[in-house]
Write a structure and sequence with these properties.
104 residues; mainly alpha; two-stranded antiparallel sheet; 2 strands; 57% helix; elongated; disordered N terminus
Length: 104
């Protein structure tokens, strides 16, 4: 079933406007991206050759790592830790500090 239909978007909506089509079958999805600049495709092909992989395998690996690299829960926990270490009240302007340091 197309993902845009599964998520309740009608055809012709945002998914179609972005020229991306995603389908899912038995836990494996297929993603079609239309209207890519040929230079972009050539760069992906070159990257795939350097890694001794097919274009499809290269893009699949890149997409998988990109999504896996961002863990929102871990990021939010880290942000709370940083916020807890930050004293309350107004903070220094980093631009001013950089200018002062540069002018020394």
């Amino acid at each position: 079933m197309p993902l845009h239909q599964r998520h309740g978007d009608s055809p012709g909506g945002a998914d179609d406007a972005s020229n991306m089509l995603a389908t899912e079958d038995a836990g494996v999805a297929t993603l079609t991206i239309r209207n890519l600049d040929e230079a972009v495709v050539e760069r992906w092909k070159e990257r795939a050759r350097r890694h001794h992989r097919s274009l499809e395998s290269e893009v699949r690996d890149y997409l998988g790592k990109g999504v896996a690299a961002f863990d929102r829960t871990a990021f939010e926990a880290w942000a709370r830790e940083v916020a807890a270490m930050t004293p309350p009240g107004p903070q220094s302007d980093s631009g001013e500090l950089a200018r002062e340091d540069r002018d020394r």
